[in-house]
Amino acid sequence: MDVSxxxxxxxxxxxxxxxxxxxxxxxDDIPAAREMFRxxxxxxxVPGEDRLDIEDVIVDGVPLRVYRPKEAGADLPxxxxxxxxxxxxxxxxxxxxxxxxxxxxxxxxxxxxxYRLAPEHPYPAGLEDCYAGLAYLAALDGVDxxxxxxxxQSAGGxxxxxxxxxxxxxxxxxxxxQSLGIPExxxxxxxxxxxxxxxTPMWSRVQAIKSWxxxxxxxxxxxxxxxxxxxxxxxxxxAYVVTCQYDPLRDEGIAYAxxxxxxxxxxxxxxxxxxxxGSALVREAEVVQRMEAENVAxxxxxxxx
Length: 305
Hints:
By secondary structure, this protein is of the alpha/beta class. The protein has a single domain (3-303), classed as Rossmann fold (3-Layer(aba) Sandwich), CATH 3.40.50. It contains nine helices and eight strands. It has an eight-stranded mixed beta sheet with strand order 1-2-4-3-5-6-7-8, sandwiched between helices. Helix 4 packs across helix 5. The model has no long low-confidence stretch (mean pLDDT 96).
């Protein structure tokens, strides 16, 4: 990829962006995209697994993976973890490392949801699985149901926002916090960043179009499919929103954060310069370490007693 097209890109990302293949048409072949995504999985045990009790369960047909710090003592906060992948790729295993890291860093019980994927299972299948995961988390022994958060990246960020809306409108489980990382929120694809970024690293307008086509399955979007369409954002839990400079999803994340603020919701918005969708792959980059540390700190603050 020609990095000269992104003059403000953080220098730490230049080597990997230069090597990245063109992924703009990746969602034309979903099975191949899923296999390519799995190539990013690390080999061997994930650091920190030994400090957790990890259990796979199936609840109402939904596979979940539960991460509980050993010797937890008193009731712990709970975090619902929703993986990314454009609503079409990813699973429990692709985000296993992230869930392990979050459970240890926040000292919380984490439930990682293997929600159904489009196009085989279009909306609302995946979202209903996420909500089922939240209900399970809220009822778990050893979890303080007054300290629950939902956390997701990319499509997982969009599903996290939608799960928060469902929890509000269905009368629970009550959420104390929503962590929305580079969220996919708006099927209309009309923001300046979405129209401008047609060939950006890892995610582009072309992929976003296909992602929404697969997820919606030919049906019009409502405010739970695309939270940006929701008229009333009042009564939602405080939010932490992350956006990246060279990301087509940037402006819809910023717009959603501003609308939450206007609706009276407490919001912390972080727009990181020089970053792109998927910057977290370069874990040694200072800006990535800062992104992760600040997100963890926000979750700790929100879920503290």
